[in-house]
Design goal:
By secondary structure, the protein is of the alpha+beta class. It contains 4 helices and 4 strands; from the N terminus they run H-H-E-E-H-E-H-E. Strand 1 and strand 2 form a beta hairpin. Helix 2 crosses helix 3. It is elongated. It starts with a helix and ends in a 12-residue tail after the last strand.
Length: 166
């Protein structure tokens, strides 16, 4: 009889232990993703440069690419962008790569700060809604001499295509 009572008590204890909520594995604070929007996110410029270089200087996807240099002046509402292509790149490929570089900078900023919209076929993206783009395009030879092949200033929240001729 003692054995049956012991088994019955042990079964009740196990049943009660299984029915309680455990906070050891999941606390109220860590359950689920954080959907809060945060403002004033600080862009990490070093990480941004590394990400842009890793993607847009890939010799397989962008064989014409030599360098992308940029400076964000968000307080002053402008962005300087220097795009450098390899010597011998056609004007069409140079224009296409300049477009990709501008969009790529925006898209990598949007990775760090979700408040910026991504680029699309007819927009450079949310970063440029409030910032002027100061674009200079070089080939490697002209970059060494400091004379751009093409230079333009793109007003805030405007999209344009580039007609680069050398």
């Amino acid at each position: 009889m003692k054995f049956k009572t012991f088994v019955l008590i042990a079964g009740c204890i196990m049943l009660l232990c299984g029915c309680t909520k455990s906070n050891i594995i999941h606390s109220e604070e860590t359950m689920g993703p954080d959907f809060n929007l945060y403002s004033d996110i600080e862009i990490d410029p070093e990480q941004l440069h590394n990400d842009v270089d890793d993607i847009y200087l890939d010799p397989v996807d962008y064989p014409m690419a030599s360098a992308i240099d940029f400076e964000l002046h968000l307080d002053e509402e402008y962005i300087n962008i220097d795009v450098v292509v390899k010597d011998g790149t056609s004007p069409e490929d140079t224009a296409w790569f300049a477009d990709q570089a501008i969009k790529g900078i925006n898209d990598q900023v949007a990775v760090q700060d979700f408040s910026y919209g991504e680029s699309d076929d007819d927009t450079f993206g949310g970063l440029y809604q409030d910032n002027v783009i100061r674009l200079k395009v070089y080939d490697e030879s002209s970059y060494a001499s400091g004379t751009p092949l093409y230079e333009t200033e793109i007003p805030k929240d405007e999209y344009m295509t580039f007609d680069i001729q050398f």
